[in-house]
Amino acid sequence: MIVLAIESSCDETAAAVVRDGRQILSSVVSSQIAIHAPYGGVVPEIASRAHLESIAPVIGQALREAHCTMGDLEGVAVTRGPGLSGALLVGFSAAKAIAAARQIPFVGVHHIEGHLFAPFLEQPIEFPFLALVVSGGHTHLYHVEGFGRYTTLGRTIDDAAGEAYDKSAKIMGLAYPGGVLIDHMAQSGDAGAIRLPRPLLHDGTLNFSFSGLKTAVLQQIARQPVTIPSQGADDLCASFQQAVCDVLTVKTQAAIEQSGARRLVVAGGVACNGGLRSSMKNMCAGMGVELHIPPPSLCGDNAAMLAVPGDYYLSHGLASSQYLDVTASWDMDSIKESSV
Ligand code: KG4
Ligand code: ZN
Predict the structure, then answer these.
(1) What CATH number should be reported for the domain holding residue 268?
(2) pTM beyond 0.85
(3) What is the pLDDT of residues 207-220, one digit of tens each?
(4) The dihedral formed by the CA atoms of 232, 37, 178 and 174, expressed in degrees to the nearest 10
(5) Domain that holds residue 84
(6) In this structure, which residue's CA is closest to atom 10 in ligand 1?
(7) Neighbours of ion ligand 2 (CB under 5 A)
(8) I need a surface site. Which of 107, 123, 193, 264 has the fewest CB within 10 A?
(9) How many independent structural domains does the chain possess?
(10) Ligand 1 site, CB within 6 A
């Protein structure tokens, strides 16, 4: 089945053409980072307008790069939520319109469902597996038994890991989004230079908390201001990164021990992080657990990842109704194959 996938939940307009939920024929991502950077974060109304301008050219480019026409498409998969309602509506309306015009089925997919199946675009993974999704809006541990069968084992009780990266970067005076900049500077820093907290590390739950870490960065800068570039800034980045990676790794290890999982997926934008990738690799090697982390191009928001669950639902007769609408908040545990 040749599926057109569309993503517009936040600040990336993306379209991809994927065969059989496996083979990426094209994947186009148009980022709005430069548009939102002067505001230090995503401005929802500006995001919706930028999606409107990009959606048709991005879909057109995805079709051209895949050497396909609309007539070759057999289904459409699109992010239904969670995300910014106005932004979601742009991609969702485009998907519905294409499906109606071509008389092909479409399916609304959970954005995080896309992230956690991104590694399938390289190699399918046997169920069940444990998944850590770390992005700008999510830091969640899921037990995944199959498509549409997810149980949340733990989650952040305040900021997501990516949010903590971006907010801490802003406090340090770095550009938006600062996650990748902290990652880069951390490589030249001493991770033991500054003592930062590891919130909820040994609280006996699988939950996370990152807002205190951001406050600790603020207090550290108040005590000892840093200029950029400097060794002090690199040390602060390395110490921050170590604290985030320690918490993510220890909690994921506890989830593996509790669930007896043999396979782990780490996905979402923060899965690009060099420190996290190596920390997870070491932990999994020590435990004999199979680790799957998508390549950086498939960790951040993209449309190809949506085609994996999308292809499954469409080929199992689980298309969405033309009356389905977007949803800004949507719990993964409430997704059931039958209700798609
Ligand atoms: O998955 P994603 O592209 O969008 C959401 O669904 O949120 O994740 C974006 C998040 C941002 O917070 C960004 O700063 C963070 O991922 N991120 C990183 C890195 N690359 C992206 N955080 C730490 N290190 C990185 N290398
Ligand atoms: Zn995302």
Answers:
(1) 3.30.420.40
(2) yes
(3) 999 999 999 999 99
(4) 0
(5) 2-117+298-339
(6) 136
(7) 135, 301
(8) 123
(9) 2
(10) 10, 135-137, 162, 165-166, 177, 179-180, 183, 268-270, 272-273, 300-301
